[in-house]
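Chapter review: from sequence to fold.
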Amino acid sequence: MARWRLTAPHYLNVPGTEWEHKETDQSTGKQARKVFLVPALLNPDTASDCNYPGEIIVCYDGKGQGRDIVFEGDPTPDMEPLDEEAEAISATFRPQWQHPIESLAPNGESYSSDLLRMLEAQLLKAGKGEAAQAVPNSGVSREEFDTLQGQLAALMAQNAELIAQLGKAPTGRRA
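The token string follows.
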């Protein structure tokens, strides 16, 4: 049944929550109307938001009881599970939940050094992953390497000739 009690205010995607914008064209008098789906603000401290006395109970996929508010999306750390199914769903998301203050390094390192460390770990992982395995490790044969070196030497000689010709050419300027 997957039901949770909200312990803090939440913006949740509740089906049917819309915001409507209307404007009237001054020249024609016609009215333009646009409807946008928006998240609903549910605050357990506001009595008008509570669907049960003093609390807000939400459910997943419309499998709730009575006045439960159906929401779409993932549960958050500030949702208290009320049944075993909700506890199992919350347990799958728990590794992703990080408190913004508690996730800071305790030894006084800055956020930037933590971010650099995380990026370095991702680069190492990517270097050892699929991208590194996609390049064949057989290498280039000696003959192909020697051919490539010869072509490079010829190209460098042609470039040197062109640069020398450009240096001798008159500029064509008149005083």
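Two observations follow directly from the output. Residues 106 and 149 are 55 Å apart (CA to CA). Residues 131-135 have pLDDT under 50 and may be disordered.
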